[in-house]
């Protein structure tokens, strides 16, 4: 699994210190439309989650879920990493 290269909570705190405390937070999400629009989704939830690397997608992903919404176990070769996840809705 490739190394997970991202901001750390410490670095995020340092960056956030430069902004007004009441500034809204959004997440940039590609719309994947004809015009190449990037959407600004309001960040509404924050939680510690496990992510694993997907060879198919070429990036890190949340675990797959069964039809009941339960997280499926990771493959034996996967070594999930714990991350701070920002989400755009309940249960992200």
Sheet with the most strands: spatial strand order? 4-3-5
Q: Oligomerization state of this entry?
A: single chain
Q: Give the count of helical stretches.
A: 1
Q: Could you give the order of the helices and strands?
A: HEEEEE
Count of DSSP strands: 5
User: How many angstroms does the end-to-end distance come to?
Assistant: 23 Å
Query: Globular, elongated, flat, extended or rod-shaped: what is the shape?
Result: globular
Describe the fold and architecture.
Strands 4-3-5 form a three-stranded antiparallel β-sheet, with no helix packed on it. A two-stranded antiparallel ribbon has the order 1-2. The protein has one helix at residues 9-16, and strands at residues 26-30, 38-42, 45-54, 59-61, 81-87. With 92 residues, it is mainly beta. The radius of gyration is 16 Å and the shape is globular. The mean pLDDT is 87.
Set out the fold topology.
Blueprint: H1 9-16, E1 26-30, E2 38-42, E3 45-54, E4 59-61, E5 81-87
Antiparallel strand pairs: 1-2, 3-4, 3-5
